[in-house]
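Person: I keep going back and forth on a fold encoding question. Show me how you would write down a chain together with its backbone fold. Please set it down just below, with no commentary around it:
Helper:
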Amino acid sequence: METIPCGFAWTSSPANAGELLGRLAGWLGPAAGPPEPPLSVVFHCSQQGRRALDAAAARRTEVSARLFPVEVPCLRHVSDALLLAAFRMGAAGVALLGCENCPHGERALLELNTGTAERVLVATELGAGRIRLITVRDGEGRPEGALEQLDEFAAGLRPNAIRYEADRYHPAGNREVMADALRALMAQYGPQAEPVRLPRGAPYARAEVRAEGCTLCRSCTNVCPTHAFRFDEARQTLEFKHVACVACGLCEALCPEHVIVLRPELTLNEAALDYQVLVRDELLACTRCQKPFVGKRALASVEARVQGVPALAGVFAGERSGLLRMCPDCRAVAAVLHVREGWRP
C-alpha cells in the first residue's frame, strides 16, 4: 500500500468482493468508539475516478486523510449491500467517484443501488445525505476539483455509532452481506415498525401468501432461484426468507392458486433475516394402512377439483368415495377389487 501526497491510502483494485470487504474491515475497525474525525469510504472507478486521484497526487493537492479510497473496475459493481456494509463497519459516509458519462452505460443500476441503500439509512437514525455521487468529465481540465467536493462531503458528516469489532470480514454472498448490515443497523438503532419502500426494480421483496387459498403445491419452492421459499416436510410448513428474495416474480406468476403477492420493500426486523412460517398444514394418514401420505390442504384441493369434473362424477362416488383418502398403493388395490366386483371405470 503506497501513501500519496494528497493524504489517501492508495489501493489497487481488489481481486474480489471478499478482498474488498476485508480492506474496509481492516481500515474501519476495530475501534473503541466512533473515530474522530469521522471516516468515509470512496469507491472510485478505474477510469475517470482514478484519473482524478492521479491528478491530485501529481499536484500534491491537500485532501483530508479521513477519506479511504477503494478502486473498483466500474461503479456499477458497488451494490446496495456493499454500500450498507461500509456503514455496518462504521463509515460515516460513502462517496462514489467516477465517470460523468459511464462507458458501460450502467448509471441506472448505480442509481438503483444507491437509492435502495439511502432509503434504508433514512429509515434509521443514520439519516439521509451519507451517500454522494461525484463525477468527472472525460478530458476535464481540472479533474482533481472533484476531490474538493469529496473533502466537503466528508467534513459535513456526523459520526456513525456502529462499530465493527474485528479486522476481518467473513460473510461471503451478497445476501449474507446485506443481512449482516441490516442486523447491525437494527442492533444499533432498533427494528423499524414501517417497511422500507423500495425504488422500482430493486431486487428485494416481501412475499404475502393468502394462507386460506394455499394448497401447498410447492410451485413457489420449485421455481424460486434463491430458495427464499422452502417447504419443511417434517413440520409441513411453507416458509419464506425475506432477505433472500430477489423479486424475480416467478412465484407470483406461476402460483396455480394465485395466492402470492410480492411487495417491493425491505422489512427492518429480525424476522426478515431468517425463514418464517407462512402456511402450516397437517399430514393425513391413509384410511386403510394408516401410513401418512398427503397434506390436508392438497387433498382438499384434489377432491374439489375432481368433484368439478362431470366425467369423474361417478368414479369417486358411493363405495368409492374414499379412494382419494387412501395412499396410492392402497388405492390401486381397492380399485382392482371394485373392478372385480363389476365396476367399470
